[in-house]
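SAMPLE LOG
Freezer: B-3
Tube label: C17
Construct: single chain, 149 aa
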Amino acid sequence: MTASDEARETALIAAQAAADKLATDVSIVDVSDRLAITDAFVLTSAPNERQVQSIVDGVEERLREHGVKPVRREGVAEGRWVLLDFVDVVVHVQHAEERAYYALERLWKDCPVIPFTDGAVPAAPTPAEEDSAGDEGGSTEDAAGESGR
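STRUCTURE (predicted):
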């Protein structure tokens, strides 16, 4: 059994919301085969407590816009590891130190990863694209062939 389409969509929205708030190491793990209580974990990191809270706020706000509200929040007061339970998806926002120490990816390494690419960050151009970009607009001459000095 794999994560439901609804859970995958919710996880991807949460991951993008976290990335938009500058979360690092954003990943989604499909735990549906191992856990009966949820389908996916969204794992994110932040360098400090203030950033953890910003990511939590961003994820909650974005999912509320999609009609999804958390049924439980844990760890908000400490701001080191906040867990947002959306039933089918659980979002873990961890301080970078907690992320390294607890290494949830290692714990769930046998579970498949749901691909996530930050949609707000444009992909780096390929070498072929860079070459063709150099051909466009690289000249200082205008359409009449005169120098643009």
